[in-house]
Specification:
Elements (H helix, E strand, L loop, with lengths): L13 E3 L10 E6 L3 H7 L4 E8 L2 E5 L5 H7 L11 E3 L5 H4 L2 H8 L9 E4 L20 E4 L5 E4 L2 E8 L7 E7 L2 E6 L8 H4 L4 E5 L14 H11 L3 E5 L3 H5 L2 H12 L2 E4 L5 E3 L1
Parallel strand pairs: 4-5, 5-6, 6-7, 11-12, 12-13, 13-14
Antiparallel strand pairs: 1-15, 2-3, 2-15, 3-4, 8-9, 9-10, 10-11
């Protein structure tokens, strides 16, 4: 595990090791940084999603396989019964594998009807990833559509345009304290991304080291292009595929930082960013 050293100029956004105490202020925690099939299947990185705490509202984004275990093993533990909402950006298993068990956990087995689940329409239809018997457990299900504002408790977020991906997929934009945060999830690169993701902090899924024709995922060249155009204060790389892991994400992030003169870091399992 690589220790992330972040400069003071990032204005209160700091990364801590997974074993350190999570601050009481707003934070987000990477419960996993695995992307695509083989890193997830082999659990070379965990695939638990991202936990966000915003003004005492707790939200879990993309609970992939092992999300419940990652919450239990977190230091300190993250209690799913304290979740106020769960967001699925899309139905693929590395993002949704633990969605059903996390709904059970959020609602304490359905005995406490609480929380909101936000998801694209295709997660509930055809071959659904959310079981029908669970759909009465949360207080509400809200269907994600493009360029729409949503809220749960004190957490407010906006969806992006629909991404170019084999299933219905949306990225997110939200604020933690005075910082705007963009979560750019799986997609093929297209120019409209630069219109939506102009934020202070950009969290971006980067599956591939190099372009793979016909596969709708970003690669390092795409990330470099995005950073040059968006100029975020800080970019956090995550959701790594095999080629990224072999190339060592922290070294790639350091190289991007040097070339672009912008702060770029590679997320690791358990990394917490506080605001």
């Amino acid at each position: 595990m690589v220790k992330v050293r972040l400069p003071r100029r990032q204005l209160r956004a700091q990364a801590t090791k997974s074993g350190e105490k999570i601050p009481k202020q707003d934070f987000l925690k990477f419960l996993g940084t695995a992307g695509a099939r083989f890193v997830m299947i082999k659990q070379l990185r965990h695939s638990g999603g991202i936990w966000i705490s915003s003004k005492a509202t707790n939200v879990l984004i993309d609970p992939g396989p092992g999300s419940l275990v990652c919450c239990a093993k977190s230091k300190p533990k993250l209690d799913p019964a304290k979740l106020d909402g769960i967001i699925l950006t899309h139905r693929h298993l590395d993002h949704s594998g633990d969605i059903n068990v996390m709904i059970e956990a959020m609602t304490e087995g359905g005995f406490k009807r609480r929380g909101v689940v936000f998801c694209p329409q295709d997660t509930l239809e055809g071959d659904p990833v959310i079981f029908k018997y669970l759909r009465s457990f949360p207080q509400n299900f809200e269907i994600l559509t493009a360029n729409t504002n949503y809220s749960v408790g004190n957490f407010v977020f906006q969806t992006s345009m629909q991404h170019i991906h084999p299933v219905e997929t949306f990225g997110l934009k939200f604020k933690l304290q005075d910082k705007s945060v963009g979560l750019l999830v799986d997609t093929k690169y297209f120019e409209e991304l630069t219109e939506f993701y102009r934020t202070d902090i950009l969290i971006v899924s980067v599956i591939f080291l190099e372009m793979r024709p016909g596969i709708d995922h970003l690669n390092i060249s795409d990330i470099k292009n995005l950073i040059q155009k968006l100029k975020p204060e800080k970019t956090i790389l995550t959701h790594f595929g095999m080629t990224m892991l072999k190339a060592k994400p922290h070294l790639l992030a350091e190289k991007l930082s040097q070339e672009l003169h912008r702060e770029v870091v590679a997320a690791y399992d358990g990394m917490t960013v506080s605001f």
